[in-house]
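Section 5.1 Outputs to date
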Amino acid sequence: MGKQNRRRRTGRTARTDGPVLDATALSDAAQIADAIMATAVTSAQGDSVAARRFIGQLAGSGTLTQELAHGAQLASQRIITRVFQHGWLPMDVHQIARRRVDEFAVGYLTDVIAAYIQPFAPALVDETWRAQIDELAAVTWWSGSDPHLVQWANRQLLTNAEALTTVVEALALLVQLPKLELIRPLPGSARVQPAAHHGVDEKVLGRVRGLLAKAESTSFPEEAETLSAKAQELMTKYALDRVLVDADTSVPDLPGARRIWLDTPYVEAKALLVEVVTRANRCRAIFVAAWEFMTVVGDDNDLDAVELLTTSLLVQATRAMIATGNQSARSDESRSRAFRKAFLTAYATRIGERLAAANESTIAEAAEAARLLPVLASHQRTVDEAFDTLFPAVRGRSITIRSAEGWEAGLEAADRAQFKGRSAKK
């Protein structure tokens, strides 16, 4: 959203049944922080008129005062701390922000995250946190000469009212976020020396990434099938070798958890695809439909495989869906939402069947098949226990299909991308 749109948006009308805050009575940063937090709650409840009135009083006609800027920073840190204590990770905050607020608020929240993490020694920050902070490029770029809000507003060329509107809208989003499961340790509580575990084989992952990248880029279905099948075969064989090694160690890898965010439309159908890939890779998953993400529980190596394969299959499924809709032989239904939802659901269902068959074949052909089965069973029990601990009251969810034509087309597309545990030409 551009700056002009931001200015127009501040003039919209809305309900006015919330409390009317008086900015003129505030004298210090702590009081301002309390008022900004209250305004964010008011805005989150839908009373944007009262919020705008308060922002107008705060902004005034002059420059942003030190007390005002410090108050905004204090409010932001209080709320982001609570959000992280409630289980949200830096990338989760970014993902929900890019879906619900404009680019100014997304950028502001990135800076809020950078300010939050800055006091912690790297050795006391979980590796997932460090990786996500790096991916977001969340760094304290501002100097100590002026408060962050002053430097940020100048950098973005925003007026006082626009900058404060961004703060309130960003915090209004944060106060709505529900409490989630704490799947990674908070900064400051991470272990300085984690227990020894088997790291991901980067050579294997590199080969898998390369195969899937080629599968996504090729325009020949048979080539995509061969490349994807080879990628799944590599991941399965590597995983089977690893669980045997873990069975011989006194410190086996313990299950972890990650969140996979899904983009609209057809989120439920895409979630089903993630679910079948998750099961095929010895993990468990739960879909949070209201916030459009899935939490996957399993070993870190298996979680890597799930992320790689689902990302590739979502690209391939979407491309196949669009190509099917563009075929002149298809009816107009092939471009409808019902058709496309049915297509993706059928695609996911058939892929799940193929992956299950491929796993059975790979296990049967393994050199130590007899020893492997009880080891895999023990491994699955460990994952199930970890999942049940995080989600003790999980219920199943169904998907309604309203297009038989889309279902059939999705099955056909999945058949063309079948996953068989066989060797492929290099």
